TrEMBL record:
Its main location: nucleus. GO terms for cellular component: spliceosomal complex. Residues 14-401 form the RSE1/DDB1/CPSF1 first beta-propeller domain. Residues 867-1185 form the RSE1/DDB1/CPSF1 C-terminal domain. This is Splicing factor 3B subunit 3. One of its GO terms (molecular function) is nucleic acid binding. One of its GO terms (biological process) is mRNA processing. Pfam families: Beta-prop_RSE1_1st, Beta-prop_RSE1_2nd, CPSF_A. Residues 445-770 form the RSE1/DDB1/CPSF1 second beta-propeller domain. The keyword Acyltransferase does not apply. Belongs to the RSE1 family. Signal peptide: none annotated.
């Protein structure tokens, strides 16, 4: 078996972020680490929209990240700590839109090790040095400098090691231009390590240590150490030199402390807490993240608590001596992993879970009535300040970045009957959890919708002058009339535009600098700026059928296929070319390209004819309308478009400000066919030759093409039964569907409110649309949930979803009310008699208080407290039908949909496995487990509890099995049947070693996943009523999820980020039983005597939470789709031929050498983190081929006996394989056409296959196309299943026992 790993959507969670001027301009960017990828996020200072301008896969674990700038520089560098054992300094190159590696220094072994630096990075505020530290012992300092060419240089590492010491945090202290100083938060564990009683460990204290880099001696010395009273979690550097008093802020439990070297006394302030908070008052409060902002006049810090409250912290100083810490409550936002304040007044919040946000800082809280807390206010030890949280008023959210992290569970189904399946994902944690329905496509924002008087057939936008930034008119054509609308504050009809309104319009455009042109069936109308009109009438009774137009040229076709060419001269007059061109067939469509800047005309005219050909004609004066090339088509052309993708839009850019070199792209001829297929060919700008043709099936309707402007670049909108956008994004070509209803005609639209939009018609409505989130793979619809979703099941016929949600350390709704009543009673009983009136007011305030958990976070109830609910959802409508809250401390862990054989009717039951009073550490179960059985009632609008079955352990997994149900009760595997008062236990096995976390079934087999001992293969013997383990895995694996591929093969994923496929050998006997009393019959490694073989191993780097076999496009082939905890969605695609597998394997081998990972990690070692990579090719690495220089591409392609275009085409085809197969087997496609579009185009013509009776004729299928994920050895002649003639499924072997 051989698989190709493809990422459908990169990880969306952000681990850490840093901001700076990475592009060298005045605008600031944000560098965000998503675990393995490094993104450049650029917030638009005008609109506030965030754009990801570049994303790069590092093929390594990014452990830490920081930015620094050399003295006097205008550009920030990025220093990255990874698992490569190297420190890497990167520079963002905005011209090439890539990262350039400036330096890379090796200092240790690869991997995430305790004593290898990389976990912590701190930079000197003046950019002179970098300290990189390990969790334990080792710290290294690198000196940064410039050479004579002003290039960045890095020194050899200087050691600052200290044995038997843990490092918690490190920060560069701002000391101006004195020797660089680093502050470290450390703990010496030597005494605790030598004390067997554990008392020393309980008394161990953290210390604050300052390390000084002596630039004169080139040496690091330990300057000062001080023991800390409280346990601290991070340090903050205070601006120094001429900007502030220097020193550091220590954030610890319940307190924030200012410290500095010298005579400065410590300044200490308690962390404020919420008034009437439901949390345990004895539970400590901590700051979890911070950001600092510094200007010439002031500096301040924004610190966030673990509840999400943001405080503005300032320091009061007197002659460089800090005298006071002031804190003021600003607002409450979701808990973040990183905060970044930009000079434009934006606050970027990289949320721990859920969507990342960009806020506009409207106020800094200086003028409001919020109390300001001071360290000078006398407070008793252990007491603190209190504040009232409120709705946000200082921070205004302006944009969001989609984040699915964490994806807890996912299923891929087409419940909405949209032909393409949807991803139903349970995301998030606590009160901000959501159920998201993901659809492949760009999100479309509807700016305006208005009805029209009739059904239009076309729409255009026109500007009045060539240098206008925005469009002036929307022209709508009907069957017998033309409507002209002006664009301004409102869109309204105009009558003095000069357009003829009593006839339909074929095309209209701006001609030259200030003239308009209208083409209609009887002629051409040339409208000058002074409203003079020139008319050209079609000869005789012939009418104009098609036309092509740009800002200087016009070509029309008359009835019968005659072409007439017009060109504008320097005076603005439109002149007809003397000769006309007779085509061999009727013209079905035409296209002209844009006039390149500095030239007088576009050189090519593309003409589509009814004889299934497209012809390229020259428009040069020497050989005007002479043929250049021809391309045969499998179906008539519906629409043509010549566009230069990857270039700036000449029409929207003024020639004075645009750079010609920047605009150079690749010239493409796009051909939309009447059978719904889009062809894209490269058009040679010199000879007019067509090459490298790509095909894509878009829909069942004919494809119409329209030129658009996206982010200042040219793009193509293709409209079929679904609209698709073809555009360049981050140096990649993308063809993405729009998640919107069917459009009939469209045009580019630009106005003050919508600079880059689309105006389109659908039935009798005019719509103005905007595309904001370019580059996104999925758009989403969101249904809010109450607690963290654990699992869900979907009814196979009705489509309703049952979810279970569970939170630890949380209150139920009833538990919150009880806690408030408890607090109110406690307040009244402890109050003095004289304070009873005040106590009653406060008690009623407590009872009335109700903070929204979504905005302010759910209160922590304490360890051992659980909140859970069962929810019935209509996922397509996004509506909750029914919710049942489970009692406090009863937690739901598993859910299953079962159809019991004892019930004659076709009725599905819902089983929910719960645990009561579960304590995690030390683990104990106070109230046992429960199996709650529900049935659907009220026409599937709610669930009714039938009965509750007590069990003695936590039921972590439930699965339907042969009309009964298999339940994992701790380490026991049991089979239950339905009874009247409870479930009836029929069979039990206690042979699983630790704890069962997942059960999958097929036929008479059960695939049991142990928490740490991989998969056990279990056979249920009906006659003996026995569950027998007949095989297991050789390796211990900490399984998170599994998916049977066929009867003998199962795909599994573990919590360390590994994906594996294991298979039972053909010699396995499932009826074999071990004799436990016999020493000689004991299995290998104390397990079963028969072992599964490892077929595939691949390290993904992220914990996989779900695996599923799915067909992502109708008619496509099945893939194994996975989702991860960090929000990544990907697929393992099986190769259908040995030729493909060998091609990608060799390409991967070349790219490992020619484009090694940017941060120095060896790709082969990375993908073999735990087990050597086997049977899987890394498609993400193969797709880096397109980012190579052309010389490297050519060199690799020659090694593979192909051209660079063929390699790029192969990469595109493997990703779009499902689409290509749909193109062959899609709806409405004649069988005789399938042969014509099976082969790719060669040179100028398409080689058409001969018609045959078969769907694909006699095309070779490849050696392994019959068994998609079948055995790598091929079908064995001795296999009993093969010899018996049993059928083969799409995913290999079907089960034998009637499954």
């Amino acid at each position: 078996m051989h698989l190709l790993n493809l990422t459908l959507q990169k990880a969306t969670g952000i681990n850490c972020a840093a901001h700076g001027n990475f592009a060298g301009t005045k605008q600031q960017e944000i560098i965000a680490s998503r675990g393995q990828t490094l993104d450049v996020i650029r917030p638009d200072p005008d609109s506030g929209k965030m754009h990801i301008t570049h994303s790069m896969d590092m093929f390594g674990v990014i452990r830490s990240l920081s930015s620094f700038r050399l003295i006097g520089g205008t550009k920030d560098y990025i220093v990255v700590g990874t698992d490569s054992g190297k420190i890497t300094i990167l520079e963002y190159n905005p011209t090439k839109n890539c990262y350039d590696r400036i330096h890379q220094e090796t200092f240790g072994k690869s991997g995430c090790r305790r004593i290898v630096p990389g976990q912590y990075i701190a930079t000197d505020p003046k950019g002179r040095a970098v300290m990189i530290g390990a969790i334990e012992k080792q710290k290294l300092v690198f000196i940064m400098n410039r050479d004579s060419q002003a290039r960045l240089t890095i020194s050899s590492p200087l050691e600052a090691h200290k044995a038997n010491t843990f490092l918690y945090n490190v920060v560069g202290v701002d000391v101006g231009f004195e020797n660089p100083l680093f502050a470290c938060l450390e703990m010496d564990y030597e005494e605790a390590d030598n004390d067997p009683t554990g008392e020393a460990a309980q008394k161990s204290q953290q210390s604050l240590t300052f390390y000084e880099l002596d630039l004169g001696l080139n040496h690091v010395v330990r300057k000062f150490t001080e023991t800390l009273e409280e346990r601290a979690n991070f340090l903050i550097a205070v601006p120094g030199g001429n900007d502030g008093p220097s020193g550091i802020l220590i954030c610890s439990e319940n307190y924030i402390t200012y410290k500095n070297l010298g005579e400065q006394p410590d300044v200490r302030a308690p962390i404020p807490r919420r008034r009437h908070d439901l949390e345990d008052p004895d539970r400590g409060m901590m700051f979890v993240t911070y950001t600092a902002h510094k200007t010439k006049a002031l500096f301040f810090f924004l610190l966030q608590t673990e509840q999400g409250d943001i405080f503005k912290v300032t320091l009061t100083s007197d002659e460089d001596m800090v005298t006071e810490i002031k804190m003021k409550y600003l607002d409450t936002i979701p808990v973040a992993s990183s905060l970044c304040v930009l000079r434009t007044g934006f606050l970027f919040v990289a949320c721990e879970f859920g969507n990342h946000r960009l806020y506009q800082i409207a106020h800094l809280g200086d003028a409001d009535d919020e109390p300001e807390f001071s360290s000078n206010t006398p407070v008793e030890e252990g007491d603190t300040f209190y504040f009232r949280p409120r709705e946000a008023k200082n921070l205004l959210m302006v944009d969001e970045l989609q984040s699915l992290s964490p994806i807890m569970h996912c299923k891929i189904l087409d419940l909405a009957n949209e032909d393409t399946p949807q991803f139903y994902t349970a995301c998030g944690t606590s009160a901000r959890s959501t159920l998201r329905v993901l659809r492949h496509g760009l999100e479309v924002t509807e700016m305006a919708v208005s009805e029209l008087p009739g059904n239009p057939n076309a729409v255009w936008t026109v500007r009045k002058h060539g240098d206008d930034k925005f469009d002036a008119y929307i022209v709508v054509s009907f069957v017998n009339a033309t409507l002209v609308l002006s664009i301004g504050e409102t869109v309204e009809e105009v009558a003095d535009s000069g357009f003829l309104g009593t006839t339909p319009t074929i095309a209209c455009s701006l001609l030259g600098d200030d003239a308009l042109i209208q083409v209609y069936p009887e002629g051409i109308r040339h409208i000058r700026a002074d409203k003079r009109v020139n008319e050209w009438k079609s000869p005789g009774k012939r009418t104009i059928t098609k036309c092509a137009i740009n800002e200087r040229q016009l070509v029309i076709s008359l009835t019968g296929g005659e072409l007439v060419y017009f060109e504008m001269d320097q005076t603005g007059q439109l002149n007809e070319y003397t000769e006309r061109k007779e085509m061999q067939s009727d013209v079905s469509c035409m296209a002209l390209g844009e006039v390149p800047p500095g030239e007088a005309r576009s050189r090519f005219l593309a003409v589509g004819l009814e004889d299934n050909t497209v012809r390229l004609l020259s428009l040069d004066p020497q050989d005007c309308l002479s043929p250049l090339s021809l391309q045969a088509l499998p179906a008539p052309a519906e629409s043509l478009n010549i566009v230069e993708l990857g270039s700036k839009d000449f029409r929207r850019e003024s020639s004075a400000t645009s750079d010609t070199k920047e605009r150079r792209g690749v010239l493409y001829l796009n051909i939309g066919l009447q059978n719904g297929v889009l062809l894209r060919s490269v058009l040679d700008p010199v000879t007019g030759d067509l090459s490298d043709t790509r095909t894509r099936y878009l829909g069942s309707r004919p494809v119409k093409l329209f030129r658009m402007t996206i982010q200042g670049n040219q793009a193509v909108l293709a409209v079929s039964s679904r609209a698709w956008l073809s555009y360049h994004y981050q140096n990649r070509f993308l063809l993405t569907p729009l998640s919107y209803e069917t459009l009939e005609y469209a045009s580019a639209f630009s106005s003050d409110q919508c600079p880059e939009g689309i105006v389109a018609i659908a039935s009798n409505t005019l719509r103005i649309l905007a595309l904001d989130k370019l580059g996104t793979v999925f758009n989403e619809t969101v249904t809010p949930l109450r607690y963290t979703p654990r699992k869900f099941v979907i009814h196979p016929t009705i489509g309703v979803m049952v979810t279970i949600e569970t939170d630890h350390n949380a209150y139920t709704l009833e538990g919150k009310i009880q806690r408030k009543q408890e607090m109110a009673r406690e307040l009244l009983t402890t109050a003095e008699p004289t304070d009873q009136d005040m106590a009653k007011v406060l008690a009623s305030e407590i009872l009335r208080g109700d903070l929204n958990d979504v905005d302010f976070g759910a209160p922590k109830a304490g360890p051992g407290k659980w909140a859970s609910c069962v929810r019935l959802v209509h996922p397509v409508a996004g509506k909750t039908l029914w919710v049942e809250d489970l009692p406090q401390n009863e937690a739901a862990f598993s859910v299953c949909l079962v159809k019991f054989l004892v019930r004659a009717e076709e009725e599905y039951f819902v089983l929910v496995g719960t645990a009561v009073d579960l304590q995690l550490n030390p683990r104990q179960l106070g109230g046992g487990g429960r199996l709650r059985t529900y049935r659907f009632v009220d026409d599937f609008q709610k669930l009714e509890l039938m009965h509750v079955t007590p069990v003695d352990e936590v039921p972590h997994s439930i699965a339907a099995f042969q009309g009964r149900v298999a339940v994992a009760v701790g380490r026991s595997l049991r089979i239950y049947d339905l009874g009247k008062k409870k479930l009836l236990r029929k069979c039990e096995s206690k042979q699983i070693p630790n704890m069962i976390v997942d059960i999958k079934t097929m036929g008479s087999r059960l695939y049991i996943s142990d928490v740490s001992e991989s998969v056990h293969f279990v056979k249920y013997k009906v006659k003996e009523n026995v569950l027998s383990i007949f095989a297991d895995d050789t390796f211990p694996r900490y399984i998170t999820c599994s998916m049977p591929l066929d009867y003998n093969t199962i795909a599994i994923a573990d919590k360390f980020g590994n994906f594996s496929v294991i298979r039972l050998p053909a010699t396995v006997n499932e009826d074999h039983e071990d004799d436990p009393s016999s020493f000689w019959d004991r299995g290998l490694l104390n397990g079963a005597s028969q072992k599964a073989e490892s077929v595939c191993n691949f390290y993904l780097g992220e914990t996989i939470t779900s695996l599923q076999k799915a067909t992502l496009i109708p008619g496509g082939s099945e893939s194994v789709v996975y989702t991860t905890l960090s929000g990544r969605i990907g697929a393992f695609v099986p190769f259908t031929s040995r030729e493909d597998q060998e091609f990608f394997q060799h390409l991967e081998l070349h790219l490992r050498n020619e484009k090694p990972p940017l941060c120095g990690r060896d790709h082969l070692h990375y993908r073999s983190y735990y087990w050597p990579v086997k049977g899987v090719v890394d498609g993400d690495l193969c797709e880096q081929y397109n980012a190579l220089d052309y010389a490297k591409q050519k060199e690799i392609a020659e090694e593979l006996d192909r051209t660079p275009n063929e390699v790029a085409k192969k990469l595109e085809d493997i990703r779009n394989r499902g689409a290509r197969e749909l193109m062959c087997f899609g709806r409405g496609t004649p069988a005789t056409l399938l042969n014509k579009i099976a082969l790719q185009f060669i040179g100028k013509c398409v080689v058409l296959l001969q018609e045959s009776s078969g769907v694909l004729g006699n095309l070779p299928r490849g050696p392994s196309s019959g068994t998609f994920l079948g055995s790598p050895r091929g079908p064995s002649a001795g296999s009993p299943r093969e010899s018996a003639g049993s059928p083969r499924g799409v995913l290999g072997d079907l089960p034998r026992d009637g499954a």
